[in-house]
Amino acid sequence: MTSRRGLSRVQAVPRRTPVTWARGGGLTTLLFLLPLLFVFGAFSWYPIVRTVIMSLQHTNLVQPARWVGFQNFERVWHDPLFPIAVRNTAYFAGLALVFGYPIPLVAAVLMSEVRKRRGIYSGLAYLPVVIPPVVAVLLWKTFYDASSTGAFNTILGWVHLGPYPWLQSQQWAMPSLVLESTWANAGGTVIIYLAALTGVQTELYEAASVDGAGLLRKVWHITLPQLRGILLVTMILQIIGTAQVFLEPYLFTSGGPANATLTVLLLIYNYAFGNSLGGDYGNATALSLMLAGFLTLFSLFYLRATRSWSTR
Amino acid sequence: MNDDDFGRGIISQAEWHRPSVRWGIGTAQVLLLVGLVIGGLGPILLLAKGAITPTIDTITSPMSFFPHGAAWSNLREAWTTVHVGRYFWNTVVLAFGSWGVQIVVATTGGFALSVLRPKYARVINALLLGTLFIPTVVLLVPLYIEIVRPPLIHHSFIDSYWAVWLPAGASAFNVVLVKRFFDNLPREIFEAARIDGAGPFRLFWSVVLPMSKPIVGVVSIFAVLASWKDFLWPLLVLTNPNEQPLSVRLPSIESQTSLGVFLAAMFIACLVPIAGFLVFQRSFLRGSGLGGALKG
Questions:
Q1: What pLDDT, on a 0 to 100 scale, did the predictor assign at position A62?
Q2: Which residues, 6 or more positions from B53, have their beta carbon under 8 angstroms from its beta carbon?
Q3: Contact residues on chain A for B104, CB-CB shorter than 8 A
Q4: Nearest CB partner across the interface for A39, out of B61, B144, B169
Q5: I need a labelling partner for A92 at 20 to 30 A (CA). Which of A67, A173, B121, B245 fits?
Q6: For residue A201, what are the β-bridge partners?
């Protein structure tokens, strides 16, 4: 080390050695990066690599891990619960898209035209988002009480409907979950759209008004086309989010009745933590990798398919 | 929208003066407001009402207002007998620690990547952005195993608050948000401080941090709220009921308490987020818009 430094002094050309690097502030920089490198290394980058390794092993924390190739993937693939979980998750995501996608957009467009006290509107819309999700689910669970004196059945009873079984019926359990989830999440999307709406070029509205375009035509031909970038993003984000739904089926129904609300994430949880005799971590990591892989492929396909449309 | 913007929206001023448009839009907006009050506020008002209503009234007639008077004792019973007071305190401690770790990681990391800019910053940036695309579910099981059996250290971190605090710091979203803010600070000020003899620590502590109050505020609000909402991770790593936060305890006490007391406990769990939202509404709404802009 010293000889190299001596050499560089003779040649008067500063050479990069660990010492010059440290003197130039490299060590201080590293010191500033230390918290980030430690936290992300230990709790993000390392676990991601570990997932891949664990999915190819048989681990139960008691015996040493064994390499088993793709056995875990095969076992998950042939699990009779696997197609049920996939179907339920797709059903949840689809219903959430039907309920939850148009409502925030319509609300945001209407709210952007409010002239006075718009804060009240956006505040009310966002309020459910700050409620802790556990409270939201458990509260709605009391509303969904299947007896005729449950909150929702009482309200529907006023117009002589019901009583409905809500969470206790195989048919209605999933729509009930989607309803609560839409209530809990729509406000965040409304705020994103409101922010995007402020960026719409208003000159176009004036030009369209001069040309005699009505309200709906202005929304359809000016507002929505300018929002399409953000609309595409919120759609894919919502699909990625709902594909990982866990809290609602876990707390509302534990996957029941008769596996009608068993989702992929709940199945992963059951593999890893549902068995008191010890978790099947290989299956759990294999299934989570399958879900992550599917979502990545789906996103890439989605971005490719919508690229021409989003940037035109 | 104030008066300056009048007529700059979808509806032109001329249209706004037409009675049919005025009435149509006015009706739609009133309906929207009614819908928002019923939908957004309604369930929370029902929760507040249930928290101070005798259990039997909530069960037999959930939609009527105090047919047999109020039961303030629900709140007291929840706080003391059901130990909500202790769980509330646990939640506060967890939120505070997660906040601290997130702020330290995001500000020091953002400072190094944005202001000091070492050559390898590009690699770290790529690795950070990469984690944004990995669904969180992938981390769950290996992270849990890591807490039970940490590499190098042979000591389980189950039931230690560090098991919740430290992983909370690994939020690439925070780092990117803070880094972008630092990127937009004027470089001349950094140069001036350097010429005046300020080293990196001085630059960080006395120049960059004081200028970053807005972004630190936004990150803080979302850090505390996210910690308050968190359920699955504390459920997995905190097994001792005396250490668990409210969100983890609520599902467990559901079957052991009367409905009135349970609703009171849930109401208490909502108080801090709602109060925080009312106080910092502007930051909340701007921050969410920011999130959308970043995701876009």
A1: 72
A2: B66, B70, B71, B74, B260, B263
A3: 35
A4: B169
A5: B245
A6: none
Stated pTM of the model: 0.87
Per the CB < 8 A criterion, the answer to whether A311 and A230 are in contact is no
* Residue A271 CB-half CA count within 13 A: 29
pLDDT tens-digit readout, B131-182: 888 888 889 999 999 998 888 888 889 999 999 999 999 999 999 999 999 9
For residue B39 the two structure tokens come to 């939908």
The reply to whether A65 falls in a domain is no
Same domain for A150 and A229? yes
CA diameter of chain A: 97
pLDDT higher than threshold 80 for residue A309? no
Give the span between the Cα atoms of B70 and B73, in whole angstroms: 9
Residue whose C-alpha is closest to residue A251's, from A171, A170, A172, A167 = A167
**Domain span holding position A13:** 2-55
pLDDT of amino acid B8: 59
Q: Are residues A209 and A298 in the same domain?
A: yes
Query: Which residue carries 């039970």 as its tokens?
Result: B148
Domain co-membership, A48 together with A104: no
Residues 6+ apart with CB under 8 A from B72: B52
**Please, is A20 exposed, middle or buried when counting C-beta atoms within 10 Å of its C-beta (0-12, 13-18, 19+)?**
middle
Does any domain span residue A215? yes
Judge residue A117's burial from the number of C-beta atoms within 10 Å of its C-beta, 0-12 exposed, 13-18 middle, 19 or more buried: exposed
Q: B138, B244, B247: best mutation site toward chain A, by most A Cβ within 10 Å?
A: B138
The end-to-end CA distance of chain B, in Å, is 24
* A47-67: b (≥16 Cβ within 10 Å) or e: bbebbeebbbbbbeeeeeeee
| Amino acid at site B201 | F
A40 and A95 both lie in a single domain: no
CB A112 to CB B9 under 8 A? yes
Give B 182-211 residues with CB within 8 A of chain A: 199-201, 204
**Domains annotated on chain B, with CATH:** 3-70 (no CATH), 82-253 (1.10.3720.10)
Token pair 């945001």 is found at: A108
Which residues of chain A make contact with B45, given a CB cutoff of 8 A?
none
Which residue is listed with tokens 């015996």?
A63
Amino acid at A131: I
- For A237-291, write each residue's pLDDT tens digit: 899 999 999 999 999 998 888 999 999 999 999 999 987 666 889 999 999 999 9
User: 3-class SS at A164?
Assistant: coil
- DSSP-derived secondary structure letter, B273: H
Domain check: are A248 and A113 in the same one?
Answer: yes
The pair phi, psi for residue A201, each rounded to 5°, is -70, 115
Residue A247 CB contacts under 8 Å (≥ 6 apart), including other chains: A133, A134, A137, B231, B232
Interface check for B6 against chain A (CB to CB < 8 A): the answer is yes
Shared domain check, A160 and A45: no
